[in-house]
Amino acid sequence: MSDYQFSSEDAHSLVERLYQVPAERHVLENGLTLVHRPDFSSEVVSVQVWIKTGSIHEGPLLGSGLSHYLEHLLFKGTARRDAKSISREVHALGGGINAYTTFDRTVYYIDGPSASFAQAADVLSDIVFHSLLPEAEVARERDVILREIDMGLDDPDRQLMQALFRTAYQKHPYREPVIGHRPLFEQVSRDELYAYYRARYVPNNAVVSVVGAVSREDCLSMIREKFGSLTRGRLAPAPLEAESQQLAGRADFIQGDFKVYRGSIAYQVPHLSHPDSPRLDALAHALGGGESSVLWQVLRNQKKLVHYIDCRNWNPGTRGLFWISYVCDPDKASQAETAIFECIDCVIRDGLDAKVVEKARRQALSSEINGRKTMSGQASRLGLAEVVLGDLKYGRRYLTRLNEVSAGELQAVAGNYLQAATCSRVGLGPEASRPVSGELPSEAMRPSPFEEVSLASGGRILLQPDARLPKVHIRAVMLGGPCYEAAGQRGVSAIMAELMTLDTKSRTAEEIASRIESVGGSFSAHVGNNTVSLAIEVLPGDLPLALELLEGALTEPLFLQDAFETEVEAQVSHLHETDDDLLDFGFRRLRECFFGPHAFAVGADGKVEDLESLSRDQVEAQFRKLVCRGNLVLSVCGDFDRGHVFEALQVLLEQRVAPGMLEPAVPAERFGPEQPVRQVDVKEREQAVVLQGYPDVGILSEDYVTAEVLNELFSGMSSRLFERVREDRGMAYYVGSTRVLGLHESMFVLYAGTHPDQAEEVIKEMDGEIARVAAGDVLEVELDRCRTRLKSARVMGRQTIGARAMHAAVQSRYGLPLNDDAEFEVKLDAVNPEVLAAFVRKYLRPDRQVQLLVRP
């Protein structure tokens, strides 16, 4: 008898059956959200209250375990119920009550007979929002949790997972344990706990999820009755530091009195709603989902290296982890780790058998279905969709995507995410078991400087091999933008650049998009005040495709009429969209008022009237003008073979790209207003925006670094301007400075968003700050802070191969040194209060100021 073939139609039918009864969503007047799905298959109901706060939201007390502490204490009594009566009441209904805390949420739930729905809702409303946190219970529960922390310290598996998270996450609060660190937890007071409770446990930060034998009408009516009288709270945002892309391997090893070795290898993966999420789930099942999985078969059954191995894809609301965990004898740790990497490399190179992929897809689908077996499971899925994803329809889309996962997609995501050079490795065992595989010599961690080759044709090639990350980035940069556009054609460079990434003589736009996306790559265009660039990033094995697409874009774009019209329409829509934002509108008007006839009066994205009158022939003419050998710099950074890439780019620049040079834009003898300008624009909004523009030096000026320091001095939350306007006087929503940069001409801008009645006071503060700097009253501590931030920003801004390729190409095209970090730091250190004062007196002059007020 042959095996039953589970078709995509079968899977689709299953998905449709799961969602026969749609979920409903209601938001009460106090901000509480109800998500509900009636299910009368059994007389059971699950009522869950999801508070959108977890250990990552603990702010200044991060790592103290406040969220978990509260979870314990909310069962300890309210004005209506004491600690013992809560569980007794629920148990008397035939139900069960419990709670759990994670990184991003705390959930309280009661599962019981549907006849007890009203009482279950009443209990949850009472304990979640009306707990008293009695002092005696706070002290008693502290001792309970301290014992729980100590138990965790004795648990090797928990130690391993905490080590994994603090290694894989360097910035995000995921690195801190949910339960908290013992020394920090011990310091938490009842007042701190109560303040956190009152700040985060408000109805507008809560979701009630209900699934079971309760009608829509009864459910909504009862939730309104039990939760509707709660008062909306002042909910402050809980900012989270984003985790940077991991560029190198990390490792941690815990030595102790252990009999076996426990190891884990983790890779950064995107968030739950990312299109690759179902593919990564299926890949986890294929690699380590049970005893028939790839890793189990190879490492346990064939090579006898491990006693246990599994794989999991954990992807919450932000950057997640794909990890492999295993247990082995201490003397086999290195062999096991090496074998895991070899298995993954094999999948990346050769892919997975179709039967393995089908099994993984069915396992993942079955796992999702199993999670919906009970009312509680369904309510959890609804809560997850609402709280983590903000989309109740995500589950259906996820399962549909899962059903469509192919062997090629699993191979692609494995190659894209599971790279040994950028994984995190942790282990726990005796000293002798420390693995040595996968470690890079320290000298391999620093890339060599860019190599610059100037060709006889006028073009330049920049090369920086860097094998740490298996990616290659190619950047084509040319002078372009507003200063190279004819009057009446503002925005033509942006349209040209976008069309260059679309149809060519060799491929259609659909084929290009399909090919680059199928390999997990990217192909995009960028236009600024001074340059136009194309960027392609792929895995090393897809470099031939990248070179082919780049050649097509630079030598044979078709500029089809339909595509041209679509891009113009999209760009016009974008301009209208930005005009809806008060600050963007203000910046556009300031440029017009300040630059007047100069090209920078219009941004690189163009002008609506010009775009609407633009023709395809004008775009082609712009292409012939800008895309020539003498105007091109091709920069490559990443994991590539130098000889092969150089040969390909040399042929492209010397034989395929059109010959010619671009005449540089002539610097303006004078720009900006001859006398002060005061402009008031009216827009139907509640707030006002204040902007002040002044003449500024260009990128090629010797004073460029001085202006950078000045911009830093006026920007950021630690600036005196911010402290005076925002912190001390509370007059602005935001305040700072920026620069509209050209090679020779620029504009220095101070801006603020404020209440219309306070606009004049904000202007006085801006003028006062400029006067302070002009008088030389800047403190050395302020300058030190500015220098440190600017130096740090340079390093941080060039972490990726794409950023490095772009920086080098721009520097080369501007005629500047490829690596001017040392010179930049010398110039930074030379900026003192006197230098800043002289700069301000010369450029930020009241008689050359444009002041724009946009108000209701």
In which range does the helix fraction lie?
40-55%
How would you characterize the largest beta sheet?
Answer: 6 strands, mixed
Average per-residue pLDDT, rounded, comes to 88
Uncertain spans, ≥5 residues at pLDDT below 50?
Answer: 1-6, 437-445
For the record, give the distance between the C-alpha atoms at the N and C termini, rounded to a whole number. Answer: 77 Å
Number of strands: 22
Q: Please tell me how large the radius of gyration is.
A: 31 Å
Structural class: alpha+beta
Portion of residues in beta strands equals 15-25%
Global outline: globular
- Oligomeric organization of the protein chains: single chain
Strand order of the largest sheet: 1-2-6-3-5-4
By DSSP (H or I, 4+ residues per run), the number of helices equals 31
Q: Topology of this structure?
A:
Layout: H1 8-18, E1 24-27, E2 33-38, E3 44-51, H2 66-73, H3 83-92, E4 96-101, E5 106-113, H4 117-129, H5 135-154, H6 156-168, H7 182-187, H8 190-200, E6 206-212, H9 216-227, E7 250-255, E8 261-269, H10 277-288, H11 294-302, E9 308-314, E10 320-328, H12 333-350, H13 354-370, H14 375-389, H15 394-403, H16 407-417, E11 424-429, E12 451-454, E13 460-465, E14 472-479, H17 492-500, H18 509-518, E15 522-527, E16 531-538, H19 543-555, H20 561-579, H21 582-595, H22 608-613, H23 616-626, E17 633-638, H24 642-656, E18 677-682, E19 688-697, H25 704-714, H26 720-728, E20 732-740, E21 745-754, H27 759-774, H28 780-796, H29 801-814, H30 821-830, H31 833-843, E22 850-855
Parallel strand pairs: 2-6, 7-11, 13-17, 18-22
Antiparallel strand pairs: 1-2, 3-5, 3-6, 4-5, 8-10, 8-11, 9-10, 12-13, 14-16, 14-17, 15-16, 19-21, 19-22, 20-21
Helix pairs in contact: 1-15, 4-9, 10-13, 10-15, 10-16, 11-12, 12-16, 17-23, 19-24, 25-28, 26-27, 27-31
